[in-house]
Amino acid sequence: MKDINSKKTAKESKSPEKKTVSRATEIEEIYRGNGRGNNSDQINESEKDWYRNSVSSNRTSKYDWKFWTGLVVVLLIFVLGLFAFTKIFGRVSLVIIPTQGDIFLSGLIPAILSTTTASTTDPALTFSTISGIQDTEKRIVDATGQEKVSTKAQGQIIIYNKYSTAKQSLVTNTRFEAPDGKIYRIQKSVTVPGYTKKGSEIIPGQIEVTVFADKAGVEYNRSNTDFTIPGFVGSPKFQGFFARSKTDISGGFVGTVKKVSTVDLESNHQALQKILRERIIKKARQDLPAKFVLFPDAIQIKFTDVIISDQSQLPAGKTYVALRADLSGLIFDRQELARYLAKQWSPNYDGLPVDITNLDQLQFTLQNKDLLDFSKVEKMFFSLEGKAHLVWLFDLDKLKARLAGVSSSEMHKILASEFPAINTVTPSFFPPWLWTFPKNPAKINLSINNDSKRP
């Protein structure tokens, strides 16, 4: 007989056990439609409130996490944007007021040519010379007849001494020979300085002089030319001394030209001289390096008649009146002049580089100007009258490089210890939150105010 009870027991043992489900899970399943009932009548009101609050709390927590994550990302992007903006567009502008002061000038001041040896115990103010600046102008006038003319070409040359450190005198009528054999002479004796050395390099001594053709005629007119000195042939000096033209050598002519009445000649000469004077002084100042100053009374201008042989384009009865202007001048190094004057007239001068910003407002007068030959002068006296405004100088590029990358607070320490020529500085940072100087010196802009005066 089969054991029915034992089979039943085995079957019962194989059936799955009933899972225990929490009431919270049941409520959630009922709301989702997965519960044992088909509606929410199976839960009471308090359970419904509990479920709603639970769902709301979960949603709020999820939204809070997203909000704060997004805020952090936005802030990070904003900070990186500010950094990039500052890096690209950040710059600093400095308004600088240098140390300044006034001195009152009067009396005679001595000066020597820069190539002259000065005393080491009492260094003298030095000057240099400029010459060879030329300009020409012409006018068409009525001719009153004809006349025969014979003129010699003339122009400026520079004589070089590469032979010795000793100076060399050249007498009046010393000859200078061009490559084609034509001879030119000086009409005054000159002394050529000896050469100097810069390391192993020899820097020839030099002097500028006027030469005249040995004979009249257009064939002696020439432009850039090198010259030898025949008097030194057979001597080592022949290779050590030479000359080179600085201006055109012109004006040579032999022949018949149309005449101009004395009255017309004089009136046109005056008009031409006025035109040439203004134009050649302007040209000299434009060509002058910025470090030098040329005072009006330190200028000499020589006017020479120019014969224009080609008059084929002129109408009958007309001719040219033409003049050539040759300018020479005495110039001063601005900083050397300012330091010399500050030392002589300012008892508290500290010896630092200075400039006089109103030199054009001072009255310069050269003593015995009419007796001086600017091509030979080695010492002269002048007066400078008026109130000179001194401004202390500093290296702008060095200041930019020194401030690059430092903080605004460190700036004042650097200025006080390394730039005594600066009185006050007003910085302006862009953007406003920038508190350090850009590492690129090009982004540091400097503006110098020379109008304010230090008490």
Automatic annotation (TrEMBL):
Segments crossing the lipid bilayer: 67-85
Domain of life: Bacteria
Residue span of region Disordered: 1-44
UniProt feature, compositional bias: Basic and acidic residues: 1-31
Keywords: Membrane, Transmembrane, Transmembrane helix
Protein name: Baseplate protein J-like domain-containing protein
Provenance organism: Candidatus Vogelbacteria bacterium CG22_combo_CG10-13_8_21_14_all_37_9
